[in-house]
Amino acid sequence: MNPFDSYLKKIIANIDVSEEEKHELYTEFLDHLTQLKAEYIAKGFSESESIQMAINAFGDTEKVGKSLEKAIFPYKQWINGCAWIGLLIYIAVVLQLLFFDEFRLSSREHVITSGVCIWQTKCAEFGNVKMPN
């Protein structure tokens, strides 16, 4: 097993890309870490020390993953924000059209008054039923 495997998997887990791109990034990072390890070994450090130094030089998994995510998708936060704003505007317009449109309000009044007229007519047909005020 590769000594950098778990470290690289933690970095790749923080990035929202396709599996193919994750594999490419994993391979590229592994190559970079292997080169760093070789440089430290050439400077006289032991293999375990050089592995740890390469990982330390590369950085914290969350920070590396998040900065890579920002580099790949620099406008992701803006796009998400705009999408939410667009959705809220759409909902507001739909609610306005459904409940507060003047035409719909006037047609509801017509339906209500028509219903009252029908009620009065039916009550008059039956004679002694009184219309509520």
**Using only CA atoms, what is the Rg?**
34 Å
Structural class: mainly alpha
Number of discrete helical segments: 6
Largest sheet: none
Number of strands: 0
SSE ordering: HHHHHH
Shape: rod-shaped
Helix percentage range: over 70%
Please mark out the parts with pLDDT under 50 across 5 or more consecutive residues, or reply none.
none
First-last Cα distance? 86 Å
Report mean pLDDT, rounded to a whole number.
77
Q: What percentage of the residues does DSSP assign to strands (E)? A: under 5%
Descriptors for this entry?
mainly alpha; 133 residues; 80% helix; 6 helices; rod-shaped
Question: How would you briefly describe this protein structure?
Answer:
By secondary structure, this protein is mainly alpha-helical. It has helices at 5-13, 19-42, 47-58, 61-72, 76-99, 102-126. Helix content is 80%, strand content 0%.
